Automatic annotation (TrEMBL):
It comes from the Eukaryota. This is Thyrotropin receptor. Receptor for the thyroid-stimulating hormone (TSH) or thyrotropin. Also acts as a receptor for the heterodimeric glycoprotein hormone (GPHA2:GPHB5) or thyrostimulin. The activity of this receptor is mediated by G proteins which activate adenylate cyclase. Plays a central role in controlling thyroid cell metabolism. It comes from Sparus aurata (Gilthead sea bream). It holds the Pfam family 7tm_1. The gene is FSHR. The lineage of its organism: Eukaryota, Metazoa, Chordata, Craniata, Vertebrata.
Length: 639
């Protein structure tokens, strides 16, 4: 007996059923923990006064047949839940339930979206819920047409297995699709019938875009943990938005700017609501002047600004990056293309030029991304900071910085060693020694640059792709250790140059004027290379110890003004200011048909490369004069 299957009144089911049919007032049916296998046709046809049906925890319920719930004029609420084996609901199961205002079907085994088009409810505030049905993968066309003659107040399709929503699927003012973790696509026309949609919840889905045709009337948008939604639609589409909950803090910057722009309009054009000739302007553009509530708000690492937050920074980074690229590329070409013997200093200078060239590449990448995303960085922040581009840029800058510091230290130690043992030819540094040293430098620099890509700190913490993530202890130790090593290298270089100065100023070694020249040139080289790192190291160490003294916006000033100065100045201090380098440059250019006259002059002056004085001092008293000659601007003896 079908009626027996519906009523859960223990052993008195049939007797109670007969009594219920005779009742004239409201009736509630609760079917719980019953052994129901199916609900057949006209199961409750004899209960026209029934108002509520609640079917729950029926482990054996597998199907609901045609006309099972048909012509129930007083039924207002119906719930079918916790019936895991319910896999089929006949298209004619629900018919002519005109007062129905709540329909909930949850936690079932349904494979297909049921047909609700014959209910024809006239209730003004209709709540529909199809929730936690993990096997339902698609919302079909016109899924809710005929369900309600009015606009559906709220549709809850949460925590299903929905992957796709077809066109003309929805007709409601509040749409909740949260928890459908496989939902990747909503047809652009899915909300054609939802002209009054004011609330949309797509949290915890896999959507990558929003349907633009419903954004104009939207007042509340919830898109939390939608990690694939990295780009927002044009902001001018959000005409009535008041509250939005998103996944990424950078997106809230967009709505912050929208409010700021609205405020400007209000101040300029909205001060006269009764202005003649503009009867609708105030209503359309000035009535909504409150700030948009948006979460999550931006943090201290990602302020609401472009990568280069000011025009002077944007101009300067291009100037410095181009100088670094051209200067270091020229040095590499001259050193590698010269027919002179590759000495230890030349070998080290090649590595220094290469590291500084990598820094130039990093600056060009940052400057280019800044230009491309200018004014709309909030829409590109996630793709940039979590993508391979930022990781590559971060690798280049850390590798370049560490290799440059390592090579500068090696150059200084080589000069110190050569001068201290100037008269000991048997203790002269060989090229094989330099190769071993620089191999160690490359390994160290590569490891330091790779660690943030495997979870030790992170390049994606800030828009300029520096390893500023010190949340974990391992990351903090890594960043602090790297900074302390750079500081230690600075003091090592200072100590070496002090020792060199004390050696060359000895009257028994060289003329006093040459000693002074050597000391001055050494001071210019070392302090130009390292003084610019002092503010970087100071503020970076304080930030790594979680005691930041400046903001990320202020750190960008250090990035442009101080961080790349070494890479920009090294080619000019170590190469272009030197006469021997200029000779090599013109001789190399002449091989390609350039500067032939200047090259001929240099050939006449010196036809060999026996005295590469611009880099390496010789192991005799002449060494000191050579070093003075190498470090003087014109390459000639002074005095």
């Amino acid at each position: 007996c079908v009626l027996r299957c519906l009523m859960m009144l223990h052993n008195f089911w049939c007797e109670m059923w007969s009594m219920l049919r005779r009742l004239k007032h409201s009736i509630n049916i609760i079917s719980k923990n019953e052994v129901l296998e199916s609900i057949g046709a006209f199961a409750v046809a004899g209960l026209p006064q029934i108002t509520n049906i609640f079917i729950s925890e029926n482990a054996e319920l597998a199907s609901i047949g045609a006309f099972a719930f048909s012509d129930l004029p007083e039924l207002t609420e119906m719930t079918i839940t916790k019936s895991k084996h319910l896999r089929h609901i006949h298209p004619d199961a629900f018919r002519n339930i005109v007062k129905l205002r709540v329909l909930i079907i949850s936690n079932t085994g349904l494979r297909m979206f049921p047909d609700f088009t014959k209910i024809h409810s006239t209730a003004p505030d209709f709540l529909f819920g199809l929730q936690e049905n993990s096997h339902i993968e698609r919302v079909p066309v016109n899924a809710f047409r005929g369900l309600c003659t009015q606009t559906i107040s709220e549709i809850r399709l949460t925590r299903n297995g929905i992957k796709e929503v077809a066109s003309d699927a929805f007709n409601g003012t509040k749409m909740r699709l949260s928890g459908n973790q496989q939902l990747t696509h909503i047809n652009p026309n899915a909300f054609v019938g939802s002209s009054e949609l004011v609330v949309l919840d797509i949290s915890h889905t896999a959507l990558s875009s929003l349907p633009e045709n419903i954004l104009g009337g939207l007042q509340k948008l919830m898109a939390e943990s939608v990690f694939r939604l990295k780009e927002l639609p044009p902001l001018q589409l959000f005409n009535k938005l008041q509250e939005v909950h998103l996944t990424y803090p950078s997106h809230c910057c967009a709505f912050h700017n929208v409010h700021r722009n609205r405020s400007s309009w209000n101040a300029l054009l909205c001060s006269h609501p009764d202005a003649p000739g503009m009867p609708n302007f105030y209503k359309d553009h000035c009535s909504n002047s409150t700030a948009i509530i948006c979460t999550p708000t931006q943090d201290e690492f990602n302020p609401c600004e472009d990568i280069m937050s000011a025009v002077p920074l944007r101009i300067l980074i291009w100037i410095i990056s181009i100088l670094a690229l051209l200067g270091n590329a020229a040095v590499l070409l001259v050193l590698l293309g010269s027919r002179c013997k590759l000495t230890v200093p030349r070998f080290l200078m090649c590595h220094l030029a290469f590291s500084d060239l990598c820094m130039g590449i990093y600056l060009v990448v940052i400057a280019t991304v800044d230009i491309v995303t200018r004014g709309r960085y909030y829409n590109h922040a996630i793709d940039w900071q979590t993508g391979p581009g930022c990781s590559a840029a971060g690798f280049f800058t850390v590798f370049a910085s560490e290799l440059s510091v390592f090579t500068l230290t090696a150059i200084t130690l080589e000069r110190w060693y050569t001068i201290k043992h100037a008269l000991r030819l048997d203790r002269k540094l060989r090229l094989r020694h330099a190769c071993i040293v620089m191999t160690a430098g490359w390994i160290f620099s590569s490891l330091a640059a790779l660690l943030p890509t495997v979870g030790v700190s992170s390049y994606g913490k800030v828009s300029i792709c520096l390893p500023m993530d010190v949340e974990s202890l391992v990351s903090q130790v890594f960043v602090v250790s790297l900074l302390l090593l750079n500081i230690l290298a600075f003091f090592c270089v200072c100590g070496c140059y002090l020792s060199i100065y004390l050696t060359v100023r000895n009257p028994s070694s060289a003329p006093a004027h040459a000693d002074t020249s050597v000391a001055q040139r050494m001071a210019v080289l070392i302090f130009t290379d390292f003084v610019c790192m002092a503010p970087i190291s100071f503020f970076a160490v304080s930030a790594a110890l979680k005691l930041p003294l400046i903001t990320v916006s202020e750190a960008k000033i250090l990035l442009v003004f101080f961080y790349p100065i070494n890479s920009c100045s090294n080619p000019f201090l170590y190469a272009f200011s030197n006469r021997t380098f200029r000779r090599d440059f013109f001789l190399l250019s002449a091989r390609f048909g350039l500067f032939k006259t200047r090259a001929q002059i240099y050939r006449a002056e010196s036809s060999t490369c026996q005295q590469p004085t611009w880099i390496s001092p010789k192991s005799s008293h002449v060494m000191l004069y050579s070093l003075a000659n190498a470090l003087s601007p014109d390459g000639k003896h002074e005095g």
